Amino acid sequence: MVAAIVSVGSEITRGEVADSNADWLAARMTSLGFEVIERVCVDANRERLAATLGRLGASTRVIVATGGLGPTGDDVTVDAVADALGVPRIIDASLAEVARWRSSEASETRTLELPAGARWLGRAAHERAFAIRLGEAQAIFLPGDPAAMEAVFESAALRHIIGLAQPLDVRARLRTYGLSEAALDARLRDLAGPQVAFGFRATTPEVTVTVRTLGRDRADAGERLARVVEEVRARLGGAVFGDDDQMFAACVGRALRSRGLTLAVAESCTGGLIGSMLTAVPGSSEYLLLDAVTYSNASKERVLQVSNEVLLGHGAVSRECARAMAAGARRVSGSDLAIAVTGVAGPTGGSAEKPVGLVFLALEGVGGVTERVARFEGDRAMVQRQAAYLALSMVREACAGPVPTALSSVCG
To answer: What's the CATH fold of domain 2-164?
Structure first.
């Protein structure tokens, strides 16, 4: 069943706030089996909103709108719905209980007015929400506050539209690292068809792959989904690190735990991001022994015992410094593995020889060292994030190989 989502608010159209309500509603409606074909944002203008609702009432079967329901009765949404239907605003008899909830404010009757024919959905007077038939569509109007919107949708609004859902499709989400959208699409394109579709959502450096399958019913679609996901995993291999909301650092933690290995981290340009990602995972104390943020040359010398000769001869941003940082972190902590990162996160500090985005990484194990050199694009936060992911990826790769075999250098 086709559906549309309408967000009402001038602050949204001006870009002053993010449209998080529409994101939540789109995901929730899709999960229920609705086909969301349009998302519309309309400023707080009565005429424009009425025209939009009239159009959607003729082209969709479900409308879910949020916002424009003022707490003092200054309701552009109520007025626009009444205009679109050509009906007056009235106080429905069912709102008598709501009026009693309002105690001393009960005289402010305009806050209880709805378009004629509407049904109140809110559990309290501040949760202003209603359902009404709008042309060919069943329409739900919800408050703009995200918490109140979600609560009313789940507790009261859903029952008005759930019978219209057609959940004949099922979905799975796989989180990947190391392959671009283009590379993922090239590997999976031939699997797509009338009953199988793929979606890609990049949040650099991750890409989430959504697999959607159709069937005669949900059981049939689910069986097809299981087969397709198995094939996707086979084709993508280690690029897939988790399902849905699983974190990359959690995948790395599982790899360390499965091999019984401990880890130390030495960070410079990432400023503690690697350690933050690792310690966000419950139980990370089982394998993470140290996270040393040695941002200055002095701290690299004092904490990790990076020699003055290395710092003067090669600089803090160098493969030699990364190797020395990893060795120092492993020596100080007594860990099995140590990963070190140093580079130029920007936006300043770069040079022709060492431009912004240049990062050196070194991982030391019992048998040797692996090095990586990368040049990342993007702003400071993006460079740091990509460097942190590459560092964790190196740890994950080390856990997959034999331990304690010497680790070969990729830098020569």
So the answer is: Molybdenum Cofactor Biosythetic Enzyme; Chain A (3.40.980)
The pLDDT of residue 33? 83
355-395, pLDDT tens digit by residue?
Answer: 999 999 999 998 799 999 999 999 999 999 999 999 999 99
Say how far apart CA 176 and CA 231 lie, in whole Å: 15
Q: Domain 169-243 belongs to what topology?
A: Alpha-Beta Plaits (3.30.70)
- CATH ID of 248-400, from 3.40.1130.10, 3.40.50.1110, 3.40.50.410, 3.90.950.20: 3.90.950.20
Q: Which residues pair with 370 in a beta bridge?
A: 363
Cis peptide leading into residue 146 (ω within 30°): no
Structure token pair of residue 291 = 């996270």
286 dihedral zone (left: phi>0; alpha: psi -120 to 50; beta) = alpha
CB 389 within 8 A of CB 248: yes
Q: At what angle do helices 297-304 and 319-333 cross, to 10 degrees?
A: 40
What are the φ and ψ backbone dihedral angles of 65, each rounded to 5 degrees? -115, 150
What ranges make up the beta strands (E) of 152-217? 169-177, 196-203, 206-214
The span from the CA of 128 to the CA of 111, in Å, is: 8
CA–CA dist 179, 197 (Å, integer): 19
Enter the tokens of residue 289: 């022994």
Q: Where are the domains of the chain?
A: 2-164, 169-243, 248-400
Residue partners of 5: CB distance under 8 A and separation at least 6 = 22, 25, 26, 29, 36, 38, 39, 40, 63, 64, 65, 66
For position 101, what pLDDT does the model report?
Answer: 47
Placement of tokens 């996707």 in the chain:
232
- For 395, other C-beta atoms within 10 Å of its C-beta total 26
Select the highest-mean-pLDDT range: 97-101, 113-117, 225-229: 225-229
**What does pTM read for this prediction?**
0.74
- Is the predicted pLDDT of residue 113 greater than 90, yes or no? no
Tens digit of each residue's pLDDT (9 = 90 or more) over 100-112:
544 444 445 556 7
CA–CA dist 335, 404 (Å, integer) = 13
Summarised one tens digit per residue, pLDDT across range 217-248 is 888 999 999 999 999 999 999 999 999 889 99
- How distant, in Å, are the alpha carbons of 164, 307, 339, 360 from that of 354? 59, 21, 21, 11
| Enclosing H/E stretch for 66 | strand 62-66
